[in-house]
Amino acid sequence: MKSAVFEYALAGSLDEAVELLAQHGPEAKVLAGGQSLVPMMAMRLARPSWLVNVNEIAALKGCAPGTGEASGCWVTGAGLRQVDAERHAGLAAGVPLIAQGLRWVGHVQTKNRGTVGGSLVHADPSAELPLVARVLDAGLVLRRRAGSRVVAAAQFFDAPFVTAVEPDECLAEIRWPVWTGGRIGSAFEEVSIRHGDYAIVAACAQVALDEQGRCLRAVLGVGGASGTPIAVEPVASALAGTRLDESDIEAAAAAVGGHLDPTGDVHASVEYRLHLARVLCARVLRAARDRALRA
Amino acid sequence: MNEPTRRITVTVNGTEHEREVPVRLSLVDFLRETLRLTGTHVGCEHGICGACSVLLDGDPVRSCLMFAVQADGHAVTTVEGLCAAEGRMSVLQDSFCEAHGLQCGYCTPGMLVASHALLDKNPSPTAQQVREAISGNLCRCTGYQQIVDAVLLAASRRSGAAN
Ligand code: FES
Ligand code: FES
User: Fold this and answer.
1) Residue B163 confidence (pLDDT) above 50
2) How many domains does chain B have?
3) CA-CA distance, B52 to B42, in Å (whole number)?
4) How many Cβ atoms from other residues are within 10 Å of residue A75's Cβ?
């Protein structure tokens, strides 16, 4: 349980980090919170020959409303610690799903180190933050030496642990869309073996209601039931115009399974995962509706 | 490949230590083997058990999931640094003895670090908050109940002392 030999560089800035990645590309790994990478290195599942430590780059730890191109979003630096994201009052007001999802992530010791961006780039199909990013269709800003590009979460997650990030790129910031208009509510729920473990299945939803309680807009997603987090867009958009009554919610939850492709393992069969997806989707829709009605 | 090394300076329990270390040396091995501070235990070495918990700049983290080079310029507190003046046990440590919060002692340093960090931020936690604070720490012996009792006992003793 010791890492193999590697070369190490402490990046003092994002420019320096992407310069190092340009030089060492596929051989190198970015070391952020290390809560997934370091265990993988200890088990020799990962053997990067270079580690680029980005933990000391203050510019990666921002958390503020976006301006310019990012206006209408909250912008979090990729290196923002999960604990700081969870406790940020402004972020919780703008994009409550982030803190609602983080409540299910790991333990205090891992959240004190783990970063928002690290979880997204690791792309575990049952992880919470990738699901929130996918459901809200966050924008992920990838930096390389030659410049930067923004990848929508819908295009970011390719397969389990595989993302659109190229070897010479570093995730710099995440733009989380802030909903405006109507009364807004959101909710995140999951079932796991023990609290803090990866979800067997997770679900989250966000809805906007008009003054009469009619649904203006809804998003809904499921983690742990496909190779990537899934936003069930056709199901969610069919909820627009309804009052999110019990029958609307039950019909939506029943339709979710058709968009999922779960695998069975020692913890849960395919049937059980589909059952959980249905139950959890109904739960998050109800909870999101009730929060919106109280908003 | 030669083993790459770096010179680092880490403040551990208030004392500054400067050492040349292999970059792949974990923080827990640095504490235990380089500095001979064996109070911090090492169990799984891949972030599951919590036995290796230490405070990094005041916050609990798993020291097996950090390389020692990442602690360069930072302050670490280990279980050795939690005791009261003159090497006497702290109220929290004493409460663990009293409430039978330990048996084999494998998990104890991690439990002490996690609950110390909790009481620092929240001097009168509920049992549920204690459970949450130690949820990242595995204990194979006690069944956890006595550990929760110990932390609650420490909280009540500490608030009693303040009154
Ligand atoms: S030794 Fe670090 S968590 Fe187990
Ligand atoms: S006292 Fe033995 S593992 Fe906790």
Assistant:
1) no
2) 2
3) 5
4) 23
Q: Given its phi and psi angles, is residue A241 left (phi above 0), alpha (psi -120 to 50 degrees) or beta?
A: left
Chain B residues in contact with A110 (beta carbon < 8 A): 47, 62, 65, 136
Shortest distance between the Cα of A152 and any Cα of chain B, in A, equals: 30
Residue A148 lies in a domain: yes
Centroid of ligand 2 to alpha carbon of B140 (angstroms): 5
Q: Across the interface, do A8 and B135 touch by the CB < 8 Å criterion?
A: no
* Domain region containing B55: 5-82
What digits encode the pLDDT tens for the residues A55-71? 999 999 999 999 999 99
> Are B136 and A108 in contact (CB < 8 Å)?
yes
The rounded radius of gyration (Å) of the Cα atoms in chain B is: 16
Q: B142 and B95 in one domain?
A: yes
pLDDT in tens, A206-251: 999 999 999 999 999 999 999 999 999 999 999 999 999 999 999 9
| Closest of A143, A96, A133 to residue A291, by C-alpha | A96
Q: B17 has which bridge partners? A: B10
Using the 3D structure, point to which of B58, B82, B106 is the last residue of a domain.
Answer: B82
Contacts of A45 in chain B (CB under 8 A): none
State the residue for tokens 């695998």.
A263
Distances (CA, A) of B16 to B8, B44, B71, B73: 10, 28, 12, 10
| Cβ neighbours for A160, distance < 8 A, ≥ 6 positions apart | A123, A124, A125, A227, A228
Nearest CA to ligand 2 atom 4: B139
Residue B29 alpha carbon to ligand 2 centre in Å: 21
Of B133, B4, B157, B111, whose CA–CA distance to B68 is shortest? B4
Residue A203 CA, distance from chain mean position: 12
Residue A162's domain comprises: 58-177
Cα–Cα distance for residue pair A47/A5, rounded to 1 Å: 8
Counting from 1 in the atom list of ligand 2, the atom nearest the Cα of B141 is 2
In terms of domains, do B115 and B66 share one?
no
Q: Report the number of distinct structural domains present in chain A.
A: 3
Confidence bin at A195 (pLDDT 50/70/90): confident
User: What pLDDT is stored for residue B162 in this prediction?
Assistant: 53
Query: For position A250, which CATH number holds?
Result: 3.30.390.50
